[in-house]
Amino acid sequence: MQARSVETSYTRSKIHPQKFALYISFGSILMMFAGFTSAYIVKQSGGNWLEFELPSLFYYNALVVIASSITLHLGFRAFMRNAVTRYRLMVALTFVLGLTFIFVQYSAWMEMMRELEIFLQTNASGGFIYVITGVHVAHVLGGISALSVLLTYALTQKHRTTPTRKLRYELIAHYWHFVGFLWLYLLAFFTLVG
């Protein structure tokens, strides 16, 4: 009886409950980053703010994020068309691009420390950059974990475009695109406000 009411409400609302829960989590994540960026602006206006140019690696990571969203989307199209080899290749490439993002971000932090001598404790401006980008990397790691599940299914299971597998792919893709959008927002914020 209870399963039937959930199915009926899903049919009426046209959105799967798991997608709805994911979108609600996007709202809370956005609120958290809005709080971080608001605190950044307030602290910046208080004086004693060290201005510095972001390492160019931050901008290269924007290209990595965009490329990973494209490959994940192409993978979904291949999944739906039963183009198994292309589907597996695009998911694997997205996974590698996700790992590349982490590596490039780490390299950017190292560049901030070595070349700019900006450390977490040096000044609030550097501290905010490390904390905000670090929290974002934590969300990217969550996406990479989900991508590893998707990749495992792609490589080890016989290909079938079932509703469950389609939903799994869509949930992971929506999350990945959201995390990518979040990086572009943060990059634009640091560039315009910082």
Description:
With 194 residues, the chain is mainly alpha-helical. The chain has a domain at 60-194: Four Helix Bundle (Hemerythrin (Met), subunit A) (Up-down Bundle). 83% of the residues lie in helices and 0% in strands. The protein has helices at residues 2-13, 17-45, 56-80, 84-114, 124-156, 163-193. The longest helix is centred in the last third of the chain and has 33 residues, at 124-156.
Question: Taking all residues together, what is the mean pLDDT?
Answer: 92
Q: What share of the residues does DSSP label as strand, in percent?
A: under 5%
Q: What's the total count of β strands?
A: 0
Shape label: elongated
At CATH level 3, the topology of the domain at 60-194 is Four Helix Bundle (Hemerythrin (Met), subunit A)
Structural class: mainly alpha
What is the CATH domain class of the domain at 60-194? Mainly Alpha
Give the termini separation.
56 Å
Uncertain segments of ≥5 residues (pLDDT<50)?
Answer: 1-9
CATH superfamily of the domain at 60-194: Cytochrome c oxidase, subunit III, four-helix bundle
- Major beta sheet, specifics? none
Work out the helix count. 6
